[in-house]
Amino acid sequence: MIVAFHKPFGVLSQFTGDGSPNRALAGFGFPKNVYAIGRLDADSEGLLLLSDEARWNERLLHPRHAHEREYWAQVERIPTREALDRLQRGVMIQERKTLPCRAWVLGPGDYLEMREESRLETTGALKHGLDMAGQTPALGRPQTETTIALRQPGGVSGWPRPAGLETGATRGSNQPLKIYPRTPPIRYRKSVPECWIGLELVEGKNRQVRRMTAAIGHPTLRLVRVRIGNFWLRDLAPGQWRILTPEETGLVGG
Known about the structure:
Elements: E1 2-7, E2 35-36, E3 45-51, H1 55-61, E4 69-76, H2 81-89, E5 92-93, E6 96-97, E7 102-105, E8 111-115, E9 120-122, E10 124-125, E11 139-142, E12 146-148, E13 177-179, E14 194-201, H3 208-215, E15 220-228, E16 231-232, E17 240-243, H4 246-253
Parallel strand pairs: 3-15, 8-13, 10-17
Antiparallel strand pairs: 1-3, 1-17, 2-3, 4-14, 4-15, 5-6, 7-14, 8-12, 9-11, 15-16
């Protein structure tokens, strides 16, 4: 069994607390005997997989498999093509050079940002719009799901995506991915533009994406993992999880 979880900001990738204010996974009602495959830092968000099968840990995390994972990072200022090329060739962080990756500026059709508005948010396990007992989803705190325009500043329309990367129209859905509000929100500075970039990596060192973007002069403000293998986060909202179907499990391994 594999469980897909949209890990919110301020949540640990473990079932026990660490003495910080960050929440542990134990409070989200997961099935028994599952554990996180890999990790996301507490200040990172997005797709976290859990399983009760030990084989997935080796298959998805061992470097020899070069398993793809995709991150979207909101960074300060607009990277040039040259800066992104530096990321793709590899940059020095902690006295080691990162492996080659793919990097691009996200453009129209890739994502929709959501904003706060009065709406009852569903929480917990969702499967075909129902909870795990087959009932309608539990109601949670008010939150919004109103789409707003892309927030790419200065007319940025996105660099061409590297060959072979999917777009919002080809990732198994005709809709762009949703970027939900973060609690707390990032600090915006009117004098400093920001944009979203995509990175496809085959390694996952500690705080690697943040260190990579800092190395090219574009600090990460917010980081969301959107894909592992060929399985996408899609419209799973923060704090929600669901058990993957056999077909979806195959996408994870792909």
